[in-house]
Amino acid sequence: MTTRTLIINQHRLEKRINDLAEIGKIGETGVCRLTLSNEDRQAVETVKKWMEEAGLTTKIDHFGNLIGRYEGENPDAPILMLGSHIDSQPYGGRFDGVIGVLGALEVVQTMKENMIIPTIPIEVVAFSDEEGCRFNKGLFGVRGILGKLEEDELDRTDKNGVSRREALIQFGCDPDKLADSVYPANSIAAFLEMHIEQGPILDVLEKPVGIVTGISGPLWLTIELEGFAGHAGSVPMNMRKDALVGAAKIIVALNEIASQDPDSPTVGTVGSINVFPDSRNIIPEKVSFTVDLRDIDINRRNQLEKQLREKINSIANEHQLSYKITEDTNSEPRYCSDRIMSIMRTECKQMGLDPVELMSGPFHDSLAMSYICEYGMIFVRCKDGISHNPKEFATFGDISLGTELLYKTTIKLMEKMNK
């Protein structure tokens, strides 16, 4: 690999990533920092300290977002925002979200060290609860600052019965003052996010970084089936109302529906399931499970959703089950800014990089930001495409190249925004 001279400080970035990985560490390389947990708070305070050492003014808002600000020559101008998240899955890796926050911090710290004063304010943000695993609803912090939360979000509970409202209070936030943390309309000009790819494309093509062209639209559903419990040893098979059998058939149907066109990027997943009464010798009476259906083509995704709903109805009727479908998230695909992608292409060429341009199947904080400003994303190669797993890995060389590209993109975008 060709040796490149970097402006950003690779050693500092690597050390911070490794240090943050010690908070909530599981095993040798894993991380568990559920949103609004004690580990999350410790991580937020650690990054806050690094922001302040870099000369940023900081705050933790009432959504739990950590925000570091580098004041611009025109403090009233719309903000150029950089960032991602540092909360993790319960069985997660060291790099997911983290490189986007610490990479953004490295960008701004490098600007300050090179005495580059921005013409507009720049904010580095670690958004609260991007993952959505604890309360089954993600992108909380970023939707919060945009005033896009739903009515019942604070009432959602985790597996231990703790509500989001209670968790926010324990974290040090005031749920009654959320409105104080909402950004005024038109106050954010653009958003840049760097993230590991979480897929195998860059790794297979042996490319260290990629330019994201858009984010697939995720549809999240919760399916609840109800039958009738009975003794596993005495109720004949043809007389059963087995909710788990119905769920199993629906799960298989989802897999078949999402796999119809092998050339399409459609994906369908059931990642969580609950069975009641959860006993080996009782026929399951109630089952609830999640559905995650994604596609870059909204019309195709809508057609597949229709097929799935028809299957749920027919399977429930076949097994004499009642059912309920709850829509938890429904986002359309969102495409990246042409202007930002053009800047990235130019800067990649000057760095001697030949990046791949690719879609993102997973959603990111950028998805929410795309509704209020232009956005751009940089992907960093992820070994074997493994993510949401302690084996998740990206080299610090690749991360540094991605951060260098983020730095150069930030400088050029800021210049263009000032014209």
3D architecture notes:
The chain is globular. 33% of the residues lie in helices and 22% in strands. The chain contains eleven helices and 16 strands. The two termini are 37 Å apart. The mean pLDDT is 96. The strands form three sheets. Strands 3, 4, 5, 6, 7, 8, 14, 15 and 16 form a nine-stranded mixed sheet that branches. Strands 9, 10, 11, 12 and 13 form a five-stranded antiparallel sheet that branches. By secondary structure, the protein is an alpha+beta fold.
Globally, the shape reads globular
Q: Low-confidence stretches at least 5 residues in length (pLDDT < 50)?
A: none
Mean pLDDT: 96
Number of strands: 16
Structural class: alpha+beta
Helix content: 25-40%
Main sheet overview: 9 strands, mixed
Order of helices and strands: HEEHEEEHEHHEHEEHEEEHEEHEHEH
Q: Strand percentage, roughly?
A: 15-25%
* Terminal Cα span: 37 Å
Tell me the number of helical segments per DSSP (H or I, 4 or more residues long).
11
Query: What oligomeric state best describes the polypeptide chains here?
Result: single chain
Radius of gyration: 23 Å
